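Folds vary. Our protein:
___
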Amino acid sequence: MGSPQGSTLSTNMAGFVDGSSTRRQVSYLDSLPIYVKELIAGGAAGGFAKTAVAPLERTKILLQTRTAGFQSLGVYHSLKKLMRHEGVKGFYKGNGASVLQIVPYAALHFMTYEQYRCWILDNYSAFGTGPIVDLLAGSAAGGTGVLCSYPLDLARTKLAYQVVDPRQSLQNSVGHIYP
């Protein structure tokens, strides 16, 4: 009980109970400007959401573009075929570009919505605080986000459009090595 490790643990637990150890960590976040917090929150939420739905997004793109072998399949059979041909990694093909596109979009959209809303409320008080203000702020924020992230969305779609069969690429490689 009298070991130095025990006293360190007791000190840490005492700091945790009275809140002094967490105050140091929170004070750093509290010192950030509100728009930085909004950028971080929007970007993190967008990146997590896009990764969660990546398999369905990839399947949707394959079905929309009528990629060979996927044009007459439903969602379930397309997911099975994608798993069989490319494995789990195939579900997330293009997801890196997708996350790179959605993080700035979601961050900008979340932050600019709040900024536009405050600006409208400060400068045009006749609108009140109802749905018209939300519609105007949301429209302006969405436009700002799309304007800044559209080139990344185009790159993501091109990456997700490609389908690779590992057996086929191995046969092509062997064919080029041993003609």
The chain has nine helices and no strands. The two ends are 75 Å apart (CA to CA). Residues 131-161 form the longest helix (31 residues).
